[in-house]
Design a protein that fits this description.
Elements (H helix, E strand, L loop, with lengths): L1 E5 L7 H11 L6 E5 L5 H13 L3 H22 L15 H16 L7 H9 L1 H16 L5 E3 L18 H12 L6 E5 L2 E3 L5 E3 L5 H11 L4 E6 L4 E2 L11 E2 L1 E3 H9 L10 H7 L3 E5 L8 E4 L10 E15 L5 H15 L4 E6 L4 E6 L4 H10 L2 E15 L3 H8 L4 E6 L3 E7 L5
Parallel strand pairs: 1-2, 1-7, 2-4, 3-4, 7-11, 10-12
Antiparallel strand pairs: 5-6, 8-9, 11-12, 13-15, 13-16, 14-15, 16-18, 17-18
Helix pairs in contact: 1-3, 2-3, 2-5, 3-4, 4-6, 8-10
The structure holds aspartic acid and magnesium ion (MG).
The site of magnesium ion has 5 residues, from loops.
Amino acid sequence: MKVYKFGGASVRSAEGVKNLKYIVEDERGGLFIIVSAMGKTTNALEVVVDHFMAGRRAEALAEWTAVEAYHATIIEGLFEGPGDSGAKGAKTPAGVQKLYDEARGILSTATPTENDFEKWYDALVSFGELISTSIISEYLNAVGVRNRWVDMRRAMVTDQKFKYANVDMEASTVKLREAVAGADVDVFVGQGFIGATPSGKTTTLGREGSDYSAAVVASILDADSVAIWKDVIGVLNADPKIFPESTFIPELTYLDAVELAFSGAQIIHPKTIKPLQNKNIPLYVRPFGDKMAPGSVIRGQIAAPIEVPILILKRGQVLLQIRPRDYSFVLEEKVGEIFPIFEQYNVKVNLVQTSAVNMSLSIDKTRRLDELTRALEGHGFFVTRDEGMELLTIRGYTEPYLERYSRVPGIYLAQRTRKILRLMRKEAGGQ
Ligand code: ASP
Ligand code: MG
């Protein structure tokens, strides 16, 4: 068994879905395909959720209609319409229509409360993956790639941490193996990013979580390998849109990949590596536009260590500076109090630096920033914050890099170990 994962950008159009078919059509010996929501659907659904939560039903439904219209263009590009009307008349597959009706039902009748934000978020945002996989599974069956659609809400069992759910590996092992058992096909199509609690409430695993889904599926099914198909030739040492002098890295260890992912490289979701490393399953990052190219491979042993410095820029950061009002030492007395608060507000902390009475943190921008700040103040801390920051990580930096980046203006915070240089500054965009 192999696992292939296709992201939203790859399946954003009918051509993309046809290319997916071209990639999977000659696979033999079992293939589990994990797919994200098409294009920018998840972002659009987040807007639906915002309207819905604020009681703006009409706006929520209008935005939802736009989501349906977007998928209609893809459906038209994939399926023949009846009679002479060609693709224009292509009918929405019944399974997809059912999902549309279900979502419309929620948007027109349910009355959400702010406390349940995360629950409603998951209930609605998960439609993106449900719709994309329904269309793709239907299409593949129509063009001769016989497959089974797997409802990951019945296969991926998670805890109750809505919007950032954790997978229960043991329970999921039982459920996922059941879901693939006795199939008369050897291709499966399932949703990335989503799961459900043991009582069946839909959950999501955190934005961009489809890579992680692929890793969990691979681990549970003891796959031979996982491939993440992306719009890149493989893993690069830097984002070419930001750093023009980027180069291709053919091989990485799991540890390299974890460090890369945690410091904000957009190649793979940080949680992806662990399940694969545990079972020593290699992870390929392959170019969606070139089925024949090998891409990069991430595995336990590699022939030679990476020689180029790796540059990662994480935008949308907030620099928080926290100081106890009573001037007690941050380190000794208060550190244990601070982190549970971040945990409570689901805030990702990307860097920490402490001094005697001060703690500086780089965190992802969150809609609950004000609440978080108040909570910290409630615990007796002074809080200052700078928004619109970016965090640059250079792993394996060399002298010229040190020279260049130590001198760039406007650095708010710098951290340096033997291998890693990290800088925080106002968003400038790389260079
Ligand atoms: N569709 C989800 C997102 O955009 C999950 C994913 O793409 O991995 O965050
Ligand atoms: Mg996506």
